[in-house]
Amino acid sequence: MWNLLSILLILSMLRATNSLTALVTGSTDGIGKHTSRRLLQSGYKVLIHGRSQSRVDATISELQRYGEVESFTHDISTVSGCLALTSAVKSSHESLDLLINNAGVFCDTYSLSSCGLETTFAVNVLAPFTITRELLPLLQKTKNSRIINVSSISQNDGPRTISPSTVLNSVFQNRETWNKYATYGISKRLIAMYSLNLSKKFDSPTVMSCDPGTVNTKMLLEGWGPCGIDIKDANNEYDLATKELGEDDHGQYFFGQRVHPDVESVENQEELISLLEELSTKY
């Protein structure tokens, strides 16, 4: 005869079997943590990532009441940190349903990551490229898997046109001409460019990029002031992660304005991929 404990155990096993798995980078704060919470509430298992062990632990403690969470603490401002993260994910998971490259930085002053690359470029562009490349085989094992790369409405900041083959030295690595708004904006332009190029190479997973919304995160408050919505209302990433996919979603940029014209240039896309492939082996 079935008792309550047996029924609960079976339900728990069924949930574990049927649940989807998501990795959300930069999920110990702001939109990343909010999106992770909502995914958990929708039945996902969420891999929580951050660079501070104490913040990862605090996030795990806060979110585990909503569902199954797993922690990963890695500094993705370096290629070695990205590879350590993806190696850890691959060692514990044979497949992945959702990757949200949410982690991003807005630097108030010029700085270099420990590998010698300008920090904004390292975290906002090279990291999602490296993480996606390494985890693509896991994503391709599951049906309806998707990659969401977080861009920004700020992609229109900075020079009108750029050549990715020279942008690293002329915009990011030049301390004398470095500008925090232009650097951030171009990094978000480049990640949208990468997303569009990636979508052309594979039918699956579905690749999308998005503006997460103008949200009063620490980043927005420090860079632009309180001009956005509350974090609890920042659902763009979650909506893309859970929406019913349409035929035209693959490669699309969501919400608000069109992508910057540079993004759609095939020549720019190919130059960017060559640059990122070179840097991912050099650094």
Automatic annotation (TrEMBL):
SUPFAM superfamilies: NAD(P)-binding Rossmann-fold domains (SSF51735)
InterPro entries: NAD(P)-bd_dom_sf, SDR_fam
Keywords: Oxidoreductase, Signal
Coiled-coil segments on the chain, per record: none
Source organism superkingdom: Eukaryota
GO molecular function: oxidoreductase activity
One family name in Pfam for this protein: adh_short
Transmembrane spans: none
Family to which this protein belongs: Belongs to the short-chain dehydrogenases/reductases (SDR) family.
Protein name according to UniProt: Uncharacterized protein
Organism: Triparma laevis f. longispina
Source taxonomy: Eukaryota, Sar, Stramenopiles, Ochrophyta, Bolidophyceae
